[in-house]
Structure prediction request, 308 residues.
Amino acid sequence: MRRRLLAGLIGLAVLAACGGWSGGDDDAVPVTDAGIWALDDYTAMRLLALGVEPTHAGRNEYSGDQVVEANYDLLEAAGVELVEPGNVELVAAAAPSLIIGTDDRADLVEQLEQIAPVLLIDDNSPWEEQLERLGAATGHEADAAAVAERLGAAVEATAADVAASEHAGATVSLVSACGEQYCVYDNVRTSGALLDRFGLRRPPGQNTPGNEHGYVLVSGETLDRHLADVVFVYTGSVAAGGPSPLDHPLFDTSGSVVAEVDFGAWFGTGPLDVAWILNDLRALLLGDGHLATTADAPDLWASVLGDG
Prediction:
């Protein structure tokens, strides 16, 4: 996953040199819920939450995240074919009516637009806005609103419970291995926005804007600046082969409440990711249940769909 983050930075540099990509003109995209090719599993899951079944979804380029395995299970159960990511020839052969993905695939837009209209979503934008855009593009506005309302109610219930708990106003640190260094995460992504909504404060080094992807690379010598009352350590693809911050002598978490959580979910911005993050926060801070794994995904997904 470290490579994914670095690839994102390279992609931004390329876009800047080419004049940028705005994510597409929504008004120029035909409204349809049929024949949709999802460029990645996260986009496919957002669509599935709205009752839209894409024909295909690109597999994740990285492995090791439990939520990605959960995405695969749920998509395959819905009959979505998982395919090699970024293979334009496969897309062309399927002749989709609409291609949807996130803006980290802007490098493919010129080729993809020769096949079908393309809609790219900024996955750093609030999860509610992403659902609203996809709902408008597919004619499933009511479904998007319903999912947002259900998850919004869960967010507000958790906010009230955290405010009434012993952890009200606690500092929370988000950190992971990143190659031979470490990553710390600010409030750009959904996890940080949720912490902010719950009145949970961040260490000074995680209150900065960070980069466009919501993280900053730091050295082990500065890890002590990222200690907090509560520490969530991301595991999975981002940490593959890297040293755990929990093993660094300067990162003494003996006075903290600590949990290792799935990077894919906590760095994600889709409906299942929101439910997963809420589950983990409730488990650690409120003693309500346990930290989520792939095995818990069906129940979390049911809560997204209103079936649980």
